[in-house]
Specification:
Layout lengths: L15 H51 L5 E3 L4 E4 L2 E4 L4 E9 L2 E8 L8 E2 L23
Antiparallel strand pairs: 1-4, 2-3, 4-5, 5-6
Length: 144
């Protein structure tokens, strides 16, 4: 004799798939604030690193053309002419250039949030990359 129980009388339990989905949802909920914080930090420090890269390139060009670096400190929004190009520091970014050795300038930037980059020193044997260099995709055929 088989007894049947009504659907309401059965104990409702999550199956393994539902438990897995619930665990994944909880993990995503826990990670969202962390991801948003990392994204915010990247957004606020990007101008600082862009300015450091640009100034490192210009100091390298200055060493090549003038034979020596140009030590300086720029406040946010301040400009300078180097290697025939005008450089203006980004809003909220301070740019410092030190040249203990005239052919080896070091560049550091900071922002108004208190973030500071490490010193990046120019090495003539391993020059910095041109930050304005256009990357060409060789997989795309040029149009004529």
């Amino acid at each position: 004799m088989t007894t049947q129980t009504s659907p309401t009388a059965r104990t409702r339990r999550f199956g393994p798939a539902a438990a897995g989905l619930l665990a994944i949802a909880a993990l995503f909920a826990a990670l969202v604030p962390v991801v948003l914080e990392v994204d915010s930090r990247l957004d606020r420090t990007r101008p600082m690193y862009d300015d450091r890269s640009r100034m490192e390139w210009l100091q390298y060009q200055t060493v090549l053309t003038a034979g020596r670096a140009e030590p300086l400190e720029l406040a946010p929004g301040e400009s300078v002419e180097l290697a025939g190009e005008r450089f203006t520091s980004s809003s909220g970014v301070v740019v410092e250039v030190r040249a203990e050795a005239p052919e080896r300038p070091c560049v550091r930037t900071s922002n108004h949030h208190g973030d500071v980059t490490a010193w990046a020193c120019v090495d003539l044997d391993e020059p910095p990359a041109d930050p304005d260099l256009e990357v060409v995709d060789l997989t795309v055929a040029p149009t004529t």
